[in-house]
Design goal:
six-stranded mixed beta sheet; about 25% helix; globular; about 20% strand; 13 strands; about 350 residues
Length: about 350
């Protein structure tokens, strides 16, 4: 039996041009697996506060900066820590615009939402649906029975892709509280903290009860970012050019991370002209460098991205900034001189 005319044309096109007909029940795009390179290294670039608007000149400058940083650093993963959109009423088009630098370079990317991202539509789940549908996106909706959209984790595997080595947590720091008396910004809710704690325990149970070294990404800084400024034991490097706009309610995420002992560093955005990092009780609290040109900044404080380098068999990490002028900036924590404790004679 000879094929029909339509079938014959499709077969001929396939043979001559390699065109594969679209199948209605085709499998969805396979998500890339994060793994360390042959040298046992894995590099992340953090962009934050892009504030992409309606495809204007500032957006062009933001995208050009992203491309510059990506070409200089060639990361294995890009993390966008919130306020990707500047209250846009066209989230699908603008989100695709923001993803283009990664898609063009075939770099996996993941998102933690910020307080401005869904202001244009009031549809946080819908925005995350757009994000998860885009090529090379590893973002996830996360559990639907807890607060926030985008509470999830990504494992980074050994070079051969067989063994988990590090865990990357992503949390939705939400947007605004219901009442002004609770402060200007929302907090990571208790059920989200519980989700992290139980997830951390479950992962450790797969690893001889030893927690995997981990990093955490979210948008709004924890109250401990403010506490670190005056804490006598906190090493502090970098710049603080504005107040720490953290929630006034402390829901205990830092305490949970301290008890679990797996998270080695947290990375946030939100405050555009802060880029400092501190080490508080063994956890490094770090700001990204604001990337977007549509939002406020500070003269003499170039925009850029933060780079994070982790290693497969280490529990420490290295981080530096890559700025719009091409300069690499790596702050060094100065050794702290400890004063001997006074002794009292009984």
């Amino acid at each position: 039996m000879y094929p029909s005319g339509h079938t014959f044309v499709m077969l001929l096109a396939t043979l001559l041009f390699g065109i594969v007909p679209c199948i209605a029940n085709a499998q969805p795009e396979k998500k890339p697996v994060l793994r360390f390179n042959a040298r046992g290294q894995f590099k992340i670039v953090q962009f934050t506060d892009l504030h992409l608007n309606e495809d204007n000149e500032d957006d062009d400058k933001t995208l050009a900066l992203m491309e510059q940083v990506l070409d200089a650093e060639t990361p294995h993963l890009v993390v966008l820590t919130g306020d990707i959109l500047g209250s846009s009423a066209q989230p699908k088009r603008i989100m695709k615009l923001g993803a283009e630098p990664m898609i063009e370079r075939q770099i996996p990317w993941a998102v933690a939402l910020g307080n401005h991202d869904d202001e244009g539509t009031k549809d946080r789940p819908g925005l995350m649906d757009v994000i998860t549908s885009l090529p090379y996106s590893l973002s996830q909706r996360g559990p639907k029975d807890i607060h926030g959209v985008g509470n999830y984790y990504l494992p980074v595997y050994s070079t051969d892709g067989q063994t988990k080595k590090w865990i990357l947590y992503f949390l939705d720091s939400n947007a605004y509280p219901a009442h002004k008396s609770l402060g200007s910004y929302a907090w990571i809710r208790v059920d989200q903290v519980h989700w992290y704690y139980e997830t951390s325990k479950a992962l450790a149970a797969q690893h001889n009860d030893r927690g995997y070294p981990s990093l955490a990404f979210f948008h709004i800084p924890l109250p401990e970012y403010e506490q670190a400024l005056t804490h006598g034991e906190a090493d502090l490097v970098g710049h603080r050019h504005e107040s720490i706009c953290c929630p006034r309610i402390n829901s205990g995420l830092f305490a949970a991370m301290l008890e679990r002992g797996d998270v080695k560093g947290t990375f946030v955005g939100h405050d555009h002209v802060n880029d400092y990092e501190s080490a508080l009780h063994g956890i490094r609290l770090i700001y990204g460098r604001a990337t977007g040109f549509s939002a406020y900044g500070r003269e003499g404080f170039p925009r850029g991205g933060r780079v994070i380098l982790i290693e497969a068999d280490q529990t420490k990490f290295t981080t530096w900034l890559r700025l719009e002028n091409g300069v690499k900036v790596q702050y060094q924590v100065a050794p702290r001189v400890r004063r001997p404790r006074s002794t009292r004679t009984p």
